[in-house]
Amino acid sequence: MASIAELAEEIKTDKIKSEDLIVCLEAKNLRVVAMAMFKLIERNYCNLRIVDRLAGLGELLTDSKFIGPWQFGHVAIATLSLLDNEDAKIKFNELFERLSDNVKFLVDNFIKSESYKT
Q1: In this structure, are residues 36 and 14 in contact, taking their beta carbons and an 8 Å threshold?
Q2: Cβ neighbour number for residue 17 with a 10 Å cutoff
Q3: 59, 77 contact by CB (below 8 A)
Q4: Which ranges in 1-118 belong to alpha helices (H)?
Q5: How far apart are CA 116 and CA 110, in angstroms?
Q6: How far is CA 6 from CA 14, 18, 80, in A?
Q7: What DSSP state is assigned to residue 20?
Q8: Domains and CATH numbers, the chain
Q9: Could you name the domain of life of the organism this protein comes from (predicted)?
């Protein structure tokens, strides 16, 4: 098994195996987690384990500043929306409907901004 640093380099150079992206989602390094989320969107790769992990990350809605006005949880929830996967869409809808209007605005704004594209 590759180290997190090696996996981060593989993400950056687009040499990572899609199934290794879940390992990156579980990293303690939020930069690596973000890189993995963006790669999941780019590849449209998803399974139930990824959906569950993104849902867990979606709870990071305060004290977890990511980029601009967005917290890490906004990005995780948006990632669920951006994946073309039925389980991801169901989980996104379930989480989204429980959010405050302000948080919904931020998630929608992140999706529309296309900040995940590199």
Answers
A1: no
A2: 11
A3: no
A4: 4-12, 21-25, 30-43, 48-57, 72-82, 86-97, 101-113
A5: 8
A6: 12, 14, 25
A7: G
A8: 4-113 (1.25.10)
A9: Bacteria
Copy the structure tokens of residue 12: 């950056």
Hey, what amino acid is at 16? I
Cα 114 from Cα 118, distance rounded (Å): 9
On the question of pLDDT at 59 being above 60, the answer is yes
Q: Which two tokens stand for residue 115?
A: 């900040």
63-67, 72-76, 79-83: which is most confident: 79-83
Helix (H, G, I), strand (E, B) or coil at 86: helix
